[in-house]
Amino acid sequence: xxxxxxxxxxxxxxxxxxxxxxxxxxxxxxxxxxxxxxxxxxxxxxxxxxxxxxxxxxxxxxxxxxxxxxxxxxxxxxxxxxxxxxxxxxxxxxxxxxxxxxxxxxxxxxxxxxxxxxxxxxxxxxxxxxxxxxxxxxxxxxxxxxxxxxxxxxxxxxxxxxxxxxxxxxxxxxxxxxxxxxxxxxxxxxxxxxxxxxxxxxxxxxxxxxxxxxxxxxxxxxxxxxxxxxxxxxxxxxxxxxxxxxxxxxxxxxxxxxxxxxxxxxxxxxxxxxxxxxxxxxxxxxxxxxxxxxxxxxxxxxxxxxxxxxxxxxxxxxxxxxxxxxxxxxxxxxxxxxxxxxxxxxxxxxxxxxxxxxxxxxxxxxxxxxxxxxxxxxxxxxxxxxxx
Length: 388
Prior knowledge:
By secondary structure, this protein is α+β, with helices and mostly antiparallel strands. The chain has eight helices and 23 strands. The longest helix has 23 residues, at 184-206.
């Protein structure tokens, strides 16, 4: 199930099953330093048999394009996005209210019928300033042959599997000493597990993709979510106003994933949260509600004109003087964690029986990557420092 009270996307995905490292983090340390990793327990995940994860990034074909030639009152249109239309398409010229009908199209040149559906023919000149035109629908006669198909191929994307490992150890002497805190082995294992969670968290959020050779063996690092966002990337260069935030959110919420709620979850530092609350007081146009999830995570619900935004402060961002001024927004239905090897704990020595060492030691290992499909649904806004 998804994390109740945080987001509704993928609410039927069984991500919180027993044995899941992310699920354990969510249930045992919900207010810890790895909230993104914890929330992936309610997001999509899969196991693959490759060190490279590949997918196709597709954009919605809106049918909005431009006439780029001086068509006048003639029947030849040069279109900027000709791959979105075929013969039999009706279109609307916004500026004039004229409907046209596409009779045929070759490359980017369409032959059209003007004044379709009894609308007035108005001269169009897109040679200097392109004239917007919008696809409406397709029309075909009775007994018509199969129309030409429109391909939405998209662009290939990929990410590398990254091996993350964190070890612990306890000498025989340390094990023999009694501590008020209990077993030193158990304590070291817990700390190593949390270090492992933090390293995965940073990789999932801020990792940078590369591959190379280390100690004569190949290694790979993944692109985190912030490095997979390319469209809605904004950096604040002066005081932040409501207009700045409004434009940022409008760009993000105008694209959604088919079949998913138009919702977002975001992570920020305390500096950003303070600025947003001050903007709310200054402009009186923001509504931020504080709520508590069933796992104890404190989540603010930011009600915007475009959709609801779940806002969480991130401990690792608060510890960093740069990240505390950043805001990252993601669609939870776009995130998928893929595993080559799910998290496992290897007791390498197990009381000295394998290596003969006077110590007990082990290591946590995960080989995984994170995928963000539909990157236009997310955004990064950095340098938010002062409200205006």
